[in-house]
């Protein structure tokens, strides 16, 4: 029996989201219903016997509800993120919190939710767009996503809150902003590059990190979790990271390993955090200095080709006229 944590996480995702892709009249679906005692195991084995109309209708309804994927995963997350600001407003109306941490969390989580909606309207993620879940899996997945509302609920109902110092709060906000930027940049680069052709992306935000989108999610959600200053949101986030993010990362690593450029790319990059060493910093610095020198030489050459000409006007004041192809610049000298 394989007890790998990756297989365990994948099993939890499939069981929670209800992504069992059984056919309507497949043997897998019948065996599942027989296992729970919803369909008689002798109905198909007995020759000349058929299921009763009531039993057939019951099995058909159960297969439709529990075994047939119908709802896109993107739609469920869209509804969840759309409801997030209104849920936080309801928490404020019910508990009337006075802590600044609640309003900072409200701003970060609401902006994160609606920016996710905007991102998926402009450049959607392939996983959320293609994956479907069953009707029962829809309710289970929405209930799991609602665990992200535990942190604002704790901040709203806790009257004697732990005051976070403003420098620490500013650090959390900065980490949230960096995480959102990295996540959106990675998803945009992946969407527009893979739309043209299927290649192993090795430049841009993927040049030093193999999964920058998950790194951005880690920064943004970790900063909001730390803002609640409570152990329960932290435990929930660790649960999601182990059961959702790690299996997705493992599956993506397995898919990318089919490329020939994968071994050197894997050695040059980090899994979640960017792999930055002294040679990389030296390369970035040399590239920056080379670009600065090239721009300076280009400006010097353009001025040497068009030297300024001086003429005396009627008032006896020298005027330097620089002739350029685009415009003429006048400079007065006393």
TrEMBL record:
Keyword Membrane: yes
Pfam families named among the record's database cross-references: DUF1295
Record protein name field: Steroid 5-alpha reductase C-terminal domain-containing protein
UniProt keyword DNA-binding present: no
InterPro entries on file: UstE-like
Spans through the membrane: 76-96, 133-155, 161-184, 230-250
Keywords from the UniProt entry: Membrane, Transmembrane, Transmembrane helix
């Amino acid at each position: 029996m394989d007890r790998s944590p990756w297989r365990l996480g994948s099993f939890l995702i499939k069981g929670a989201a209800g992504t069992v892709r059984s056919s309507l009249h497949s043997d897998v679906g019948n065996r599942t219903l027989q296992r729970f005692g919803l369909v008689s195991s002798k109905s198909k084995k007995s020759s000349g016997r058929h299921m009763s109309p009531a039993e057939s209708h019951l099995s058909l309804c159960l297969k439709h509800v529990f075994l047939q994927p119908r709802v896109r995963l993107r739609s469920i997350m869209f509804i969840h993120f759309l409801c997030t600001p209104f849920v936080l407003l309801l928490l404020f109306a019910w508990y009337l919190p006075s802590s600044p941490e609640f309003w900072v969390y409200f701003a970060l989580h609401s902006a994160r939710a609606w920016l996710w909606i905007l991102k998926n309207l402009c450049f959607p993620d392939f996983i959320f767009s293609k994956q479907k879940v069953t009707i029962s899996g829809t309710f289970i997945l929405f209930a799991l996503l609602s665990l992200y509302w535990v942190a604002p609920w704790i901040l709203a109902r806790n009257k004697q809150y732990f005051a976070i110092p403003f420098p620490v709060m500013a650090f959390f906000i900065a980490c949230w902003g960096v995480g959102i930027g990295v996540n959106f940049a990675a998803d945009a680069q992946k969407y527009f590059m893979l739309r043209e052709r299927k290649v192993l992306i090795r430049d841009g935000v993927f040049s030093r990190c193999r999964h920058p989108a998950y790194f951005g999610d880690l920064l943004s959600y970790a900063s909001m979790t730390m803002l609640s200053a409570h152990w329960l949101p932290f435990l929930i986030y660790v649960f999601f990271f182990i059961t959702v993010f790690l299996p997705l990362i493992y599956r993506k690593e397995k898919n990318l390993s089919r490329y020939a450029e994968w071994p050197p790319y894997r050695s040059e990059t980090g899994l979640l955090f960017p792999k930055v060493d002294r040679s990389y910093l030296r390369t970035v610095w040399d590239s920056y200095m080379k670009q600065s020198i090239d721009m300076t030489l280009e400006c010097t050459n353009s001025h040497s080709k068009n030297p300024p000409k001086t003429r005396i006007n009627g008032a006896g004041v020298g005027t330097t006229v620089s002739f350029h192809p685009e415009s003429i610049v006048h400079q007065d000298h006393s």
